[in-house]
Structure prediction request, 229 residues.
Amino acid sequence: MSRQKELPKVLSSDERAAFLGTFNRRYQGSFRNLVAARLMLDCGLRAGEVVALRPEHVSLESRRLMVREGKGAKDRVLYMSAELRDLIADWLERRPGGPWLVGTRDGGQLDTRYLRTMVKRQACKAGIAECERISPHTLRHSFATQLYRETKDLIAVKEALGHEDIGTTQIYAHLANGEVEAGMRGLWGQDDRDEAARQAEIDELAEGILEVLPADVRAALRRRLEDGE
Prediction:
């Protein structure tokens, strides 16, 4: 039997703000880490793609970001917010020399293991629940979930993430329609729907979760629910 797939953790809007608030731009190392975190959180870059970025891959004028030879040796173009563009512009004036956009203090290439440790450390500093689970991929998941929530377009999410198979991208539909959206409504004080609407959304979320399960587990669970067990 295939192992049950676990829905990945994503950051809520409050968790995102708390996480980003732990960085101090006054210090070069913390500023660099903020840029790396925003590239993962705002553009969905993998840790390996962040450390491979070079200044010439960024166009401040067009706000385009070129990911060269990402996973599967595929290039892709992403678009930055004005806020991220301005952050990178400030960083380019302060960063140490070397070929990498976010490199070490002596201009070398960062290790992806450093990014994993850094993200987890800042998440715990921000007081995020289950901070030990937070990783660079959590930031990528958070970006993808929010992008799908805004566009409802899995193809757009697939292209932004550089996925080979749309099936890999499907998980973000479940996250956006369920965990994140429900959580955001609660945070924004908008959970005042009538009971029928609330039940309909619960049913929709349940269907989404069932679709993630292996077929034999899904069939067994449906039988038990129908039998009232």
